[in-house]
Amino acid sequence: MNYDQENIFAKILRNEANCIKVYEDSKVLAFMDVMPQAPGHTLVIPKFETTDLINLPDEYLDPLLKATRNIAAAIKKVYSPTGVMILQLNGEEAGQTVFHLHFHIIQRSEGLNYRFHSRDIEDTEILENEAKKIRQAIVI
Length: 140
Ligand code: AMP
Fold this sequence. Notes:
- By secondary structure, the chain is an alpha+beta fold.
- The chain has a single domain (about 10-135), classed as HIT family, subunit A (2-Layer Sandwich), CATH 3.30.428.10.
- About 30% of the residues lie in helices and about 20% in strands.
- β1 and β2 form a beta hairpin.
- The chain is globular, with a radius of gyration of 14 Å.
- The protein starts with 7 loop residues before the first helix and ends with a helix.
- The mean pLDDT is about 95.
- The protein binds adenosine monophosphate.
- Adenosine monophosphate (AMP) binds near residues 43 and 118.
- Adenosine monophosphate binds near residues 8, 33, 35 and 98.
């Protein structure tokens, strides 16, 4: 599949669309999922145009995984869930809906309402508040 320059995450990377930032470095950007499946649902993307993990160059792999791990640790610290789910979908058949590589980080606990994928848009103020807590808990 060809990379579509007009996908929403490409626009976020070019500052043509807004996001609620959680973390950024020279190779990675992480921001709140606007349709969170649980509070704190964060997306981590490389600053490299690829639809999927298979085509990610080596130099982005470590920074992407490291940021994902560090944000997952921050989410554990903030929400104290019993589990953290890290998801990464490659291709429409795998359920991918935005075609710029991304990892989902989603807290999971027994009894915590786990919402549907890509369905309900969350209030910006709530997302800002969750992002603030996660940002403060990130240890690089
Ligand atoms: P996937 O199905 O793995 O491609 O997931 C794409 C994710 O992007 C979904 O969880 C959506 O809720 C999320 N999403 C879509 N548009 C935006 C946006 N503008 N900002 C943040 N997250 C988004």
